[in-house]
Specification:
The chain has about 400 residues and is α/β, with parallel strands linked by helices. It is about 40% helix and about 15% strand. The longest helix is centred in the C-terminal third of the chain and has 20 residues. About 50% of the residues are buried. Bound molecules: pyridoxal-5'-phosphate. Pyridoxal-5'-phosphate (PLP) binds next to helix 4.
Length: about 400
């Protein structure tokens, strides 16, 4: 999927790559809300269906607006091919369903999006694909968990909500030495801050719902990689099973990509200010943010990422009661589990995203009752700080 801007800088491609103007000369990308396409004559229809002639047939297969989004994201991630999906979960489903078969084995980080865990353990297990979960940063545990039938290693880095990192390059080496593929859910960093394919990963997965949209409007996803696995295997499943992206959503994500670098820089800058400030608050026991020198993997974050992202977590003293006090004292933060929005969000993982785990499982995952996760948006950092200061002051009283 090469575009005419592949030789230009990331920020130029984020704005320009993949667009093909129609004869109307529209400046912005066109939306093509059409389910099917017409052919000049019966012979052309036959040639399209047989694959002899390339071109559109039906929007479950291809759509010009969706293709523009796919080409732009492929260019930004540095992949040969991108397949857009109806959601982030559909991207993970399509990747695994396209690449794996019954009897295959996945080794996954245990710190992944909760619904992904359910997809692996409840649904793929039903079809004979087993998953072993390991601690994200423990390379020995990854080595040990790989079996002859392991096909896929799956990670998110930084992890949610504790911002732990995986060394993508080293994990890719382990995967390839053992005949496996490495898939990275790059939702938290986006290609503006981290490009896993350049570090040796084979597949990048996105929930476009988050930072690619950036304003919390649409659900979508994407898979990026090579023409064989993504272009044939994953795409083959997608066009057959049908979780394709709608052209309207593709258009919204295209507009999101145009401001991606600016937004990710602003999210990162705001998050760093808040993280540094939180570290100094007496009611705060610990702050988790890869941009802090106190983060145990800060050096890896500097090496592997072009910025530290918008997710900051912190432990307040006094457990759940204190955490809820801080959350309920906010005026600006939205109390919601979503992230990647211009609007800042605040979450209590122990009673929401990680509420289904037993207390022992939560303890093992490092999710304390006092843990709060922020997804820092684009509002004034001064206002966000004041929002948190109010609740933190109430704890001390
Ligand atoms: C939200 C999310 C997903 C799932 O994406 P949807 O678009 O909600 O289906 C997958 N991975 C991560 C890291 C996410 O944050």
């Amino acid at each position: 999927m090469s575009t005419e801007f592949d030789d230009l800088a990331f920020d130029t491609r984020a704005v320009r790559a993949g667009q093909q103007r129609t004869h109307e000369g529209e400046h912005a990308e066109a939306i093509f809300p059409t389910s099917s396409y017409v052919f000049a004559n019966a012979a052309e229809a036959a040639a399209r269906f047989s694959g002899e002639q390339p071109g559109n047939i039906y929007s479950r297969f291809t759509n010009p607006t969706v293709r523009t989004f796919e080409q732009r994201l492929a260019s930004l991630e540095g992949g040969a091919c991108c397949v857009a999906t109806s959601s982030g979960m559909a991207a993970i489903l399509s990747t695994c369903a396209g690449l794996l078969k019954s009897g295959d084995h996945i080794v996954s980080s245990r710190s992944i999006f909760g619904t992904t865990t359910v997809l692996f353990t409840t649904y793929f297990a039903k079809f004979g694909v087993e998953t072993t979960f390991v601690p994200l940063a423990d390379l020995d545990a990854w080595e040990e968990a790989i079996r002859p039938e392991t096909r896929l290693l799956f990670i998110e880095t930084p992890s949610n909500p504790l911002t732990e990192l995986a060394d993508i390059r080293r994990l890719a080496d382990i995967a390839h030495a053992r005949g496996c593929l490495l898939a990275v859910d790059n939702c938290f960093c986006t290609p503006a801050l981290q490009r896993p394919l350049e570090l040796g990963a084979d597949i990048v997965i996105h929930s476009a719902t988050k930072y690619l949209d950036g304003q919390g409007r649409c659900i979508g996803g994407a898979v990026v990689g090579d023409t064989e696995r993504v272009g044939k295997d994953v795409y083959g499943f997608l066009r057959t099973a049908g979780p394709t992206m709608s052209p309207f959503n593709a258009w919204v994500f295209l507009k999101g990509l145009e401001t991606l670098t600016l937004r990710m820089k602003a999210h990162s800058a705001g998050a760093l200010v808040l993280a540094r400030w939180l570290e100094q608050q007496p009611a705060v026991a610990r702050v988790y943010y890869p941009g802090l020198e106190s983060h145990p993997q800060h050096e890896l974050a500097v090496r592997q990422q072009q910025g530290f992202g918008g997710i900051v977590s912190f432990d307040v003293k006094g457990g759940k009661e204190s955490a809820w006090t801080v959350i309920d004292a906010t005026r600006v933060f939205s109390i919601t589990a979503n992230l990647g929005d211009a609007k800042s969000t605040i979450t209590h993982p122990a009673t929401t995203t990680h509420g289904r785990l037993t207390p022992e499982q939560r303890a093992a995952a490092g999710i304390s009752d006092g843990l709060i996760r922020l997804a820092v948006g684009l509002e004034s950092v001064t206002d966000l700080q004041a929002d948190l200061a109010r609740g933190l002051a109430a704890i001390r009283r």
